[in-house]
Design goal:
Layout: H1 7-16, H2 19-24, E1 30-32, E2 35-38, E3 50-53, E4 58-61, E5 67-68, H3 70-78, H4 82-89, H5 104-108, H6 111-133, H7 138-146, H8 151-156, E6 160-162, H9 168-175, H10 180-185, E7 189-191, E8 198-200, E9 205-211, E10 217-224, E11 233-235, E12 248-249, H11 251-261, E13 263-267, H12 270-278, E14 284-287, H13 294-301, E15 306-310, H14 315-330, E16 334-337, H15 346-353, H16 355-363, E17 367-368, H17 369-378, H18 386-401, H19 406-420, H20 424-460, H21 464-478, H22 480-489, H23 497-511, H24 518-523, H25 528-539, H26 548-576, H27 580-600
Parallel strand pairs: 13-14, 13-15, 15-16
Antiparallel strand pairs: 1-2, 2-3, 3-4, 4-5, 6-9, 7-8, 9-10, 10-11, 12-14, 16-17
Helix pairs in contact: 3-4, 12-15, 14-17, 15-16, 17-18, 18-19, 18-20, 21-22, 21-23, 21-26, 22-23, 26-27
Bound molecules: zinc ion (ZN).
Amino acid sequence: MSERIPEETIEEIRSSLDIVDVISEYVQLKKQGRNFIGLCPFHGEKTPSFSVSQDKQLYHCFGCGAGGNAFSFVMEYDGLSFIEAVQKLAPKTNVTLPELSIPVNKSEVSDEWKHWYDGHDLAAKLYHHILTSSPEGKKAREYLRKRGFTKTMIDEFQIGYSPDSWSFLSDFLLKRGLKAEDMANCGLVGLRESDGKPFDRFRDRIMFPIWDKQGKVIAFGGRILDPDSEPKYLNSPDSEVFNKGNLLYYFHGARPKMKKKNEAVLFEGYIDVISAHRAGIDYGVGALGTALTESQAKMLRRNVDRVILCYDSDNAGMQATWKNAEILQKAGLEVVVANLPEGYDPDDYIREQGADRFVHDVINRHQTLMAFKSSFLKRGKNVSTEADRLLYMEQMLKEIAKLPKALERDFYIKQLSDDFSVSPEVLKHELSELMAKKEKTVRKEAYKEIQSRTVASAKKMFDAHEAAERHLITLMLQSRSIAEEIEKEIGANFQLEEYQALAALLYSFYGEGYDTNPSSFLERLEDPSLRKLAAELAMKQVNLDLSEQELHDYFKHIRLYPLKQELKELRVQLDQVKEIDERMSIANRILAIQLQLKKAK
Ligand SMILES: [Zn+2]
């Protein structure tokens, strides 16, 4: 790289950042002992194994092995290069970055993605300008005003308007130097089959930019003005950059607020998110399709403990609520349901009933998932007839059986027995049969999990030697003076490749005059797997006050290891060799080693 940020500047930024502040913007952290813990953002989990040390300015996950300092966290989480991570974090400090003459994006982002970002950025600005300040946008402006959109909302959500033309956007982008093919590849325009010329995909539509996690526009949703046109909503096609299943609408804007509240509201579409935002619900996001994916659920789980589902109150909306609730629960989220009166979607409700009622009667008066399931299961049934009543009770019992807590199960059994004057004993009996069936499958799964865990832990068992090398590197990372002693006593005698590499790098780090500083040392590790290993070891709590004797036991262990290995191999050879002279020479070598080992004791 020809263009670099000076090392001192990077060091200055690193030392003025607090890793706990940086990571707290992405992960909910709780103080535990000396460290902070939270749910790992790099793998799905329900119990926290992600640990952040403020003293050492490092993080490490005991579940998946992720680890590093503030820069590597942002690199890994946001998918940034090192320089981009530095640029992202610098504004949080008082350090000013030197102007880089070459924009970093050029070398770090592939050309294709750069065209994508540039094209979408230009298109979003153009559409927004047309909507807010051009005569062509008048009709759309009036339409939005009638629907209660304010200027603030239109600006906050960068809403725009695409004029009724086949070439408005394509001409504009071509003039700005974008190629037809690139624009078509990223879904901004289509290509005519007859002559391959670009044409506008979105015509006479209200345009809603869709952002990625970093807040870059990567796609559009377009809604018709004319109620007779079809389709009502048109989205950019899915592609490498725009993957609906990995995105939530307005996630980048809502994230800080949802983290603060430890709660998010999930809506079906962007109009709902925007209307609710105006009503003061600024921690809402939208799914960009009806069925939520596991990765969308994980995005929410990393930021909040609870999700309020607020979908349309029609049959399709309720079905989506049910399905998505299960996906969210599986990701470890608590789920509640905001109830809209029959026939409403959130946007209709806010326009007709007002923002206050939406907040108080819908969002704040949310119901438990079981209450929602009960009302959904009653739909279309006439529970005063015996057949429907039995069917309803059976379906409810199945849902009750899924509840993890006995107290909860009892509560709903009691409710069911009161509602239909059935004895609770009968219901409990039915329930226990259902649960026995479920238990069997759960036990099978648990058994499988234990088996795979045993294999994994066997892999993690280090033999005595590896443990010794590992421990010495851990000490070296956390103490310059111990490192210097180790260099004197052991030097390059580490046997295992990764520890050998770390030892060499640590010797030179301290040799250059640096003091103990694991986070700064990590900066120099280009190999991500070495960096993770170093972070893991540096995070370990070790006693740095160990006695000379303890330290020397480790040294001896490391020094004698090659001899012990040789001894083992010679014994195997002795069993196999028949030739008498050869046997004698092997035996002599064995004796010599044994003597050497004895002396060393
Ligand atoms: Zn992890």
